[in-house]
Amino acid sequence: MTALYLDADACPVREEAFRVAARLQLHTHVVSNGARGILLPESPLIHRVIVTEGADVADDWIADRITAADVCVTQDIPLAARCLEKGARALNAKGHRWTLENIGNALAGRAVAEHLRSTGARTGGPSGMTPADRSRFLSELDTLLRAAMRPAPPSLRVPPGGF
């Protein structure tokens, strides 16, 4: 059964995700490391998961539980890669789908940016959310969740051992 996982601490599209998941009647796991202030709709399908503080603890919780039938919303590129390795689908808050074809370049770009920051270079940050970003997110999330709810053909499954 398909579930939605939200990497929730810095997720600007929680409300949109809740609406889509409610319409499709999907279990949604809202994973954070202590942000009890995140308001959740009253629903037996929404599950708050608060993990301990620490680097990648929320990511580990999601990656340990996500399956090929699930979708993860995250801004974290390494978490998206881990989800893809398990055959799951991943999407960022601006509606960009992470795929086996584009995740490698994203990981490499992230590594370059980290290196530049470690040398003192300013790399800037992401641009702010626009109404077009939110609309694209809603459309892509609906598409990914509906696709996840259908069984995947064997040719689309990630081979054992990942990428």
TrEMBL record:
Family: Belongs to the UPF0178 family.
Upper lineage: Bacteria, Pseudomonadati, Pseudomonadota, Alphaproteobacteria, Acetobacterales
Protein name: UPF0178 protein R9Z33_02685
Pfam family name, one: DUF188
InterPro entries per record: UPF0178
